[in-house]
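We emphasize that the prediction below concerns an isolated chain of 176 residues; any contacts that depend on oligomerization or on bound cofactors are therefore not represented. The input was used exactly as deposited, without trimming of termini.
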Amino acid sequence: MSNSLTIAEDDHVRGGRNAAVTLIEYGDFQCPYCARAHAALTQLQRQHGDQVTLVFRHLPLTDLHPFAQPAAEAAEAAAAQGKFWDMHDALFENQGMLDEDTLPALAANLQLDVARFTSEFEGGRHRARVERDVQEAHAHGAKGTPSFFINGERYHGDSDHASLAAAIEQALGGKG
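Result of the prediction step, given as a token string:
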């Protein structure tokens, strides 16, 4: 297991790997607070550009969200075709409609090789990757979603735009 509070080679990274601020999120595609954070983080990264790196790791809360695990595995199946962030965004944008029919439809909309996607998804090819993220999250005390680490430090604030913006500004030293 890598030091999960630094960017790993196989992490899903949005932005440069050498930004002033690295925000690691352990998230669940069915979590409404993660969806709120997704919208806020998308806007904040646009605002701060290369100063902020976003890393997404899986923490599906399967006892609360029945399609969180399948959604995480679908995101990894998309990642195998170079479209993790496209699927990530599509899952959050379609959060209220997640079911067994939505995932292949999203894959088709993203112009993935749907046969490959379906084969990998149904075969559980990416389950171990998701489970590794879950184990790392638990090792660092992350049990709920979203759980954030900013520059290696646990962030305990809210997932709304104002709270995340303040935390990122603070991490940037007020020079964002």
